[in-house]
Automatic annotation (TrEMBL):
Signal peptide, first to last residue: 1-22
Protein keywords: Signal
Record keyword Hydrolase present: no
Lineage of source species: Bacteria, Pseudomonadati, Pseudomonadota, Gammaproteobacteria, Methylococcales
Protein name in the entry: Cytochrome c class I
Gene Ontology molecular functions: electron transfer activity; heme binding
Annotated source species: Methylocaldum marinum
Keyword Ligase: no
Length: 105
């Protein structure tokens, strides 16, 4: 009886975790959704990308400018404190998604 209860709880936890993963990663489970990636940006750039102190705003930037900046950080052709290292963890499609996400914030 105890084993059955443990198995049920474990199954429920697994289903819950799968639901959270799908909400964050999307239907294909391959790349995180832009909104999920943007949560990480908010730590420095502000919840809505409004900028904080010496950290620049990233909201309202034209998509092409945002993407170019991220590509420049990624290739280290644009100097940065940490953005060059952060940008290396993303793919072009992530930059496009983030550019669209922050464009209308």
């Amino acid at each position: 009886m105890q084993l059955i209860r443990v198995l049920r709880v474990t199954a429920c936890a697994a289903i819950s975790a799968l639901s959270v993963c799908q909400a964050v990663l999307g239907d294909d489970f391959k790349r995180p959704k832009p909104a999920a990636i943007a949560l990480a940006c908010g730590g420095c750039h502000g919840t809505y990308g409004q900028g904080m102190g010496s950290i620049p705003a990233i909201r309202g930037i034209p998509e092409s400018e945002f993407i170019r900046a991220m590509q420049d950080f990624q290739s280290s052709s644009r100097s940065a404190t940490v953005m060059d290292r952060i940008a290396r963890g993303y793919q072009h499609q992530d930059f496009v998604g983030l550019a669209r996400f922050f464009r209308n914030r």
